[in-house]
Design a protein that fits this description.
This protein has helices at 43-50, 55-74, 86-90, 94-105, 114-129, 167-174, 182-195, 212-221, 227-236, 242-249, 259-273, 284-298, and strands spanning 7-14, 18-26, 31-40, 79-84, 109-111, 136-141, 146-152, 156-163, 206-210, 224-225, 277-279. By secondary structure, the chain is an alpha/beta fold. The strands form two sheets. It has a six-stranded mixed β-sheet, with helices on both faces. A hairpin with a 4-residue loop joins strand 6 (136-141) and strand 7.
Length: 299
């Protein structure tokens, strides 16, 4: 097999909370980010309210993706891939969302299954973090779903699961009040425990967590999320003002109201994995770029 030289490639990721672009220089197993940008469009909130994405938001999403594709090429991207994660598989009109983006951007869009999302997140997290453990778990906390993957870094995940609860969905259902009550938090905990019922992952030597809400939580608690820290955050966050979290810790404004839901979900995931959760920057976008390069080399 002839190995390809490093290429500049890009991926646009349409998620439940944001649309994000990543342009990177990608080799066989290396990835150097060159440009990133994002736009919050709130597809997950509409999904939770009606089970659909509105025509207005579909149009705005398609326009954003088209612009991001143009921006990627302006930054030298030789190829651009567009992914749609939970909105494509959870929205009643997910097919319409994908087809509208395809027409607008002039590019084939990949509707990513939950299993594929877990696999891509695993690859991206492992590539960025470089864990030394022989078995690693990756938790991908999204807006409308949470994926878990466990496996050997060299082989990819051998076990994957997806739970249809994410930070946006849990917030809207139970934690939308300015200061959620203990009863609200307990109801959220019960819903998450029910969602994770039957999820019994192999125990890893290390556990990584990715996603925008996880990264925002890491700014407040630090990169390593232990059971004690998650429990303390669950007790303190209901009394915190989102604006104060933004000011003191640099949490993005739209993420601050989601931190309590992130804590509740990650506490349940951590309880099942045993190992502390380490927040890392890599995830589904990095995994998709590495997959692009791997497929190009195989071809």
């Amino acid at each position: 097999m002839i190995l390809l030289v490093a290429r500049t490639v890009a991926v646009v990721d349409v998620g439940s909370n944001t649309v994000r672009l990543l342009v990177a220089r990608c080799g066989a197993s290396t990835l150097t980010p060159l440009h990133t940008e994002g736009a919050r469009l709130g597809l997950g909130e509409e999904l939770e309210a009606s089970g659909r994405v509105s025509e207005t938001t579909i149009a705005a999403t398609a326009e954003t993706v088209e612009q991001f594709c143009a921006n990627a090429r302006a930054h030298g991207a030789e190829s651009v891939e567009v992914l749609v994660t939970a909105p494509a598989r959870q929205a009643e009109n997910g097919v319409e969302l994908v087809e509208t983006i395809e027409r607008s951007a002039g590019i084939v869009v990949r509707a990513v299954s939950a299993e594929e999302e877990a696999q891509l997140s695993f690859a991206g997290a492992v590539a960025v973090a470089g864990p030394s453990a022989s078995v690693v778990a990756v938790v991908d906390l999204g807006g409308a779903s949470t994926e878990l993957a466990v496996g050997r870094p060299s082989d990819g995940p051998s076990w994957v699961r997806s739970v249809d609860l994410g930070a946006v969905r849990l917030t809207n259902r139970f934690l939308a009040a300015a200061h959620p009550t203990p009863e609200d938090v307990e109801a959220a905990r019960e819903a998450v425990a029910d969602g994770f019922s039957g999820v019994t992952p192999p125990l890893p030597g290390a556990a990584l967590v990715v996603g925008g809400s996880a990264r925002a939580l890491g700014r407040v608690l630090g990169r390593e999320l232990t059971p004690a820290e998650l429990a303390a955050a669950a007790a303190i966050l209901p009394a915190c003002e989102p604006a104060e979290l933004v000011r003191r810790f640099g949490v993005p404004k739209h993420r601050a109201p989601l931190l309590l839901a992130a804590v509740v979900i990650l506490a349940e995931a951590q309880k099942r994995l045993i190992a502390p959760l380490v927040v890392v920057d890599g995830g589904v976008r990095e995994g998709a770029l590495l997959q692009q390069q791997s497929e190009a080399e195989a071809a």
